[in-house]
Amino acid sequence: MFSPEGPTVRELAVQALSSVERGYDLLAPKFDHTPFRTPDAVLDAVGSVLERTGPYTDGLDLCCGTGAGLDVLRRVCRTSVTGVDFSAGMLDVARRRPGRATEAAATGTGDSGAGDTGPRVSWVRGDARALPFTAAFDLVVSLGALGHFVPAELPLLFGRVSAVLRPGGVFALPVFAPPPPCSRAFWTLLGFDAVMRVRNAVWRPPFVMYYRAFRFGDVLRELERAGLRPELHALPGFGRRADGSPRARLIAARRLP
């Protein structure tokens, strides 16, 4: 976190006292050097499952950040991949990634154009709760974005995802079992969430970012209510719990006709 390439304590404090959008705009230049970026091991595991369940035609990375998840979509989508995020700063970093240069439009979108090296890549600034698309995708992925929503927003969020999927399309999101209460990780995550809840109780605007925001059963139930039938795929590279269940799964929720 506090490496020469990452943010300083002061920068993190300023970001944490901002809105979510402004905070990520400030964090964007150094985001890839923080633990908040989805680890490569998770990206590779998700990509491996989607390669088995695909291929897909058009994919969307929900809350794409600096674009790390676009590499997963490029592995499994044949025609186009799109990253959507409401932070202009994060999208600016994504557009400038090596090999992904795009020509930004005045609307905040960018398009790499079609080519022989893979699907067309586009970037769109937008809110996941009000996605500016019709049923244009057969794959939507969310790689660590659920913590930016409170439980009451799940029906709206999943409803929007269902609306942008074509019938039979898949919404994929990795989920991890909580660490055991005796572990350091458990208390670290619990402490982080507690600090954020206190911050949001006494400071405005809120900065919604929690690691333990949802129960697994609640996520499955709300997916089904949105017309998405969830299937579970173990991510074996992350091991198993004491009861034999996987520590990590990929939920692949298919939109019903």
Describe, in plain words, how this protein is organized in 3D.
Residues 101-109 have low confidence and may be disordered. The protein is α/β, with parallel strands linked by helices and 257 residues long. Helices cover 33% and strands 23% of the residues. α1 runs antiparallel to α2 and α6 packs across α8 (216-225). The chain is globular and about 45 Å long. A nine-stranded mixed sheet has the order 3-4-5-2-1-6-7-9-8, with helices on both faces. It has helices at residues 9-16, 20-27, 40-53, 70-76, 88-95, 154-164, 184-202, 216-225; strands spanning 56-62, 77-85, 103-104, 110-111, 120-125, 137-141, 165-176, 228-234, 248-255. The protein has eight helices and nine strands.
